[in-house]
Amino acid sequence: MLIRHPADILPSEITDSAVYLERRRFLAQAGTLALAGALPAGLAHAAGQSLGPLIKSPLSIGESQTPYKAVTTYNNFYELGTDKEDPAQNTHRLKPAPWTLRIEGLVNKPQTIGIEQLLKLVPLEERIYRMRCVEGWSMVIPWVGIPLASLLKLADPQGSAKYVEFISHYDKATMTRGVLDWPYNEGLRLDEARNPLTILAVGLYGEVLPVQNGAPVRLVVPWKYGFKGAKSLVAIRLLEKQPSTAWMKAGPSEYGFYANVNPEVDHPRWSQATERRIGEFTKRKTLMFNGYADQVASMYSGMDLRRYF
Ligand SMILES: Nc1nc2c(c(=O)[nH]1)N[C@H]1C(S)=C(S)[C@@H](COP(=O)(O)O)O[C@H]1N2
Ligand SMILES: [Mo]
């Protein structure tokens, strides 16, 4: 018979993590449980654990935030199922701890960083970002993250590095087979990767990232369609040439490398001019670069954004 210390049992094993979090929140509000410290050590990196004091970023937007419940139950994470409700129900298929992230390729100082180490690298920031899926829905999510630029600096990219590839975890024993050419991967130009808006997210709503949102660490690029934001990253690779991506391979005419939010360039099968903000009924007009044009448009000056879609 196997007897385990309660600290070794992940909350996702006891109950769905979202339910767990709601219950913990209730307990905290009721004053029966202090937010940090009172939890057993084994829960240190479980979804819902508070990430402590955060820097409030001036890059945050002021629009009303999409409720926690919607952010964590309406997800695209095909490895955990292709319906929006699947990822939250299949969190047991991905174990976010222990976890390491490699930074490799054309760098002078390759890194293998444990998740706990990553959390302490630079002060964590809250970044409230507008997010837009290519399917036509949008959310406002208060991410917790670190600027990707600071991580890249640590690895010291070589002069020949021009692109960055992001590779998600994949385990064919537990995850979806077929659909895409796994592992899920994405890419950015090095200047896009270094843009101050680009972050690696480790949390949302001030707490450790739930599995369905890409635990323990995922990319967030708010001026691009959501598919750029590769989840549950195991490697970041610096390259000389533009990498192909899982979605480009699956549908080259539908999913481009740039993936900049552009209401003037339709998806071949639907218009991209409007979007439905989750929780709202009337559609909104989609904004150029998802509303971040002031911060990012200069990176694309002189480029034909219909060709480089
Ligand atoms: N590994 C991986 N990353 C992924 C996806 C995926 O299927 N697998 N889906 C992408 C898409 S299409 C979107 S819109 C966002 C959704 O992120 P969210 O569910 O956390 O809002 O994740 C992106 N990252
Ligand atoms: Mo998406």
From TrEMBL:
Top-level taxon of origin: Bacteria
Oxidoreductase found in the keyword field: yes
E.C. numbers: 1.8.5.-
Keyword set, alphabetical order: Metal-binding, Molybdenum, Oxidoreductase, Signal
Co-factor: note: Binds 1 Mo-molybdopterin (Mo-MPT) cofactor per subunit.
Domain Oxidoreductase molybdopterin-binding: 93-247
Post-translational modification: Predicted to be exported by the Tat system. The position of the signal peptide cleavage has not been experimentally proven.
GO BP field: protein repair
Signal sequence coordinates: none
Binding site for Mo-molybdopterin: 75, 78-79, 133, 168, 213, 218, 229-231
Cofactor names: Mo-molybdopterin
Record's catalysed reaction(s): L-methionyl-[protein] + a quinone + H2O = L-methionyl-(S)-S-oxide-[protein] + a quinol; L-methionyl-[protein] + a quinone + H2O = L-methionyl-(R)-S-oxide-[protein] + a quinol
Keyword Signal among record annotations: yes
HAMAP family membership: MsrP
Function: Part of the MsrPQ system that repairs oxidized periplasmic proteins containing methionine sulfoxide residues (Met-O), using respiratory chain electrons. Thus protects these proteins from oxidative-stress damage caused by reactive species of oxygen and chlorine generated by the host defense mechanisms. MsrPQ is essential for the maintenance of envelope integrity under bleach stress, rescuing a wide series of structurally unrelated periplasmic proteins from methionine oxidation.
Protein name from the UniProt record: Protein-methionine-sulfoxide reductase catalytic subunit MsrP
Organism: Zoogloea oleivorans
Upper taxonomic lineage: Bacteria, Pseudomonadati, Pseudomonadota, Betaproteobacteria, Rhodocyclales
